[in-house]
Amino acid sequence: MADARDSPAGGIGVSELLAVLDGSGLRLASRPSSLRLPLTSPTLFDPLSVSPGPHAGILLGIGVHPTDADSPRIVRDAARRGFGAVIVKSLGLSVDTLAAVADAEGVALLVVDDELDWRQVDTLVNSALASASEADNSLSATPVGDLFALANAIAAMIGGATAIEDLQTHILAYSTVPGQIIDADRREGILGRRVPDLPENAAQYAAVFRAPGAVRVPGLTPGLDRLAVAVRAGAQPLGSIWVVDAAGDLDADAERALERAADMAALHLLRARSTADLARQQRAELLRRLLEGGDDSRLLASQLGLDPAGPFVVLAFQPELAPTGDEIRLLRLIDLIAIQCEAHQPGSECVVIGTTIYALFGGQAGSAPAEVEAVAERVVARSGSAFGITVRAAVGSSMLTLGGISRSRQDADLVLLLVGGRPGGGRVASARDARSQLTLLELAQVFRDTPRLVSPVARRIRELDAGTGTEYARTVRTYLDCSRDSAVTADLLSVHQNTLRYRLRRARELFGVDLGNPDDTLTLWLSLRVAEFD
After folding, report:
1. Where are the beta strands (DSSP E) in 321-443?
2. I need a labelling partner for 478 at 20 to 30 A (CA). Which of 307, 325, 427, 531 fits?
3. pLDDT tens digits, residue range 157-203?
4. Looking at the structure, do residues 510 and 463 belong to the same domain, yes or no?
């Protein structure tokens, strides 16, 4: 049986694959060859589960270390099982030994940049193979990376003015084929390089990204109809393509052509994103480490181009999103936050940690928390009106040194807790306005970590309340909060003053509460007060 690698018909040559993915971080480590690869998805290397039988195409050597004694055997076995190429990471080491094995076995050894995630590598290669397999010849001839040329090719092929957008509805490119009809929405989008905000946008984009293929989108008079398709790399959404259907005559052939064009557009968008994404990921990782604190804060600040003189302040956003299915809205929210922060201070940095989005401001912006609060208010208002996302925001403490950045982040996190637990309160809060509550929050943690600090009387009161449903703890704490003013306390508790006096007398009888001892009273009040933050 002929080896799949030797088949001259169909497939894609290694040199062609490298040309398509030029600039993506993939390079050839073995000798150049005329080897052709079948248009099948890459196979993931799994040392614990090697499936029997012949294979073909590309093996992603995940976990294959360039200097491990077993790695040459892995490359050799891959070649003998029918793979035409193996992709590995060099990890900053020489891959000459693996390249020599690949040359001897007649396969290609490709090396990808260490910084690229293997999922991104798989997506890039899959898009390149899909483009070679399905894309129309007129589109395949379009230089990868030239989105305007691609938009013109799609417009000429399908017969309607075309726009290519990213997930944040920025118009990345648009066609300029003479004679094609456009409407006011298209004209406004081109001038602003962004889709106009319209009430029908949310429903239309949801329909496009839910559909497996092209979708017909009716225009609202005087707007024209559109033919639209989501651009994806595998299951990952990248953007969308919109074609004006001025005469309403774009048929099923046009739909299929647009779906093929989406495959090619995915490759263009991935290529356009790869370099920018890598740089952004690197800066995000630097900021993440800076927010977490450590001895290398000065080095991290230098790499980020931050002035170490400060002051610094951290702004934190926490959106209320579903655990899954809200990825696109989250991306749009992150884009909104980045734009607003950049407008307030050019060069400001943002990063997502867990479910929280952080921004760091320094210098003059770091010394004006009130202005940072205004940025937060704009983001919260805009995210609700434009995306329907409820967002809470918190401004950390202003810190004078690089070492204080992690403290500002911690304060912002604590304020987010306060905002979340405050019914009917605003969506934006600041550490400077919640200093006493922040102190109590930290004291609550100290009391949890050191139980012996808790007043024994407070512990007994809370245990009885929990078991019987009484309210001695709330009564005593409110009485002390109100500086022992019986009238104010009774009003807050919505009880008669005689009821209040009875409860206080019973507290003395049951628990030995002595409100005449200032030391005991202080520890009792603190224990009851910080318990609320549990």
Report:
1. 349-353, 356-362, 390-395, 428-430
2. 427
3. 899 999 999 888 888 888 888 888 888 888 888 877 788 888 888 88
4. yes
Question: Does residue 534 sit in helix, strand or coil?
Answer: coil
Q: What is the dihedral of CA 402, 403, 405, 406, to 10 degrees?
A: 150
Cα torsion through 495, 501, 503, 505, rounded to 10: 180
CA 307, CA 299: separation in Å to the nearest integer?
A: 11
Per-residue pLDDT tens digits for 413-469: 888 887 765 555 568 888 887 777 777 777 877 888 788 888 888 888 888 888 888
Q: In this predicted structure, what is the pLDDT of residue 4? A: 40
Give the closest residue to 360 by CA, choosing from 277, 286, 291. 291
What single-letter amino acid sits at 468?
A: T
In a domain, 458, yes or no: yes
Spatial neighbors of 491 by CB under 8 A, at least 6 apart, are none
Contacts of residue 350, Cβ cutoff 8 Å, sequence gap at least 6: 284, 287, 334, 337, 338, 341, 357, 358, 359
Residues composing the chain? 534
Shared domain for 82 and 112, answered yes or no, is yes
Write the burial class of residue 208 (CB in 10 Å: 0-12 exposed, 13-18 middle, 19+ buried): buried
pTM for the model stands at 0.48
Q: Which domain holds residue 247?
A: 147-272
Show Cβ contacts of residue 369 under 8 Å, excluding neighbours closer than 6 positions: 313, 395, 398, 430, 431, 432
Sequence-distant (≥ 6) Cβ neighbours of residue 412 within 8 angstroms: 314, 315, 316, 358, 394, 395, 396, 431
Residue type (1 letter), 167 = L
Task: For residue 366, give the 3-state DSSP assignment.
Answer: helix
Spatial strand order in the sheet of 349-353: 349-353, 356-362, 312-320, 390-395, 428-430
Dihedral sign for Cα 465, 466, 468, 469, please: positive
Q: What is the per-residue pLDDT for 144?
A: 44
Consecutive H or E run containing 507: helix 497-511
What CATH number corresponds to the domain at position 402? Answer: 3.30.70.270
> How do the residues of the chain divide into helix, strand and coil, expressed in percent and rounded to 5?
50, 15, 35
Q: Which residue has the tokens 């052509």?
A: 257
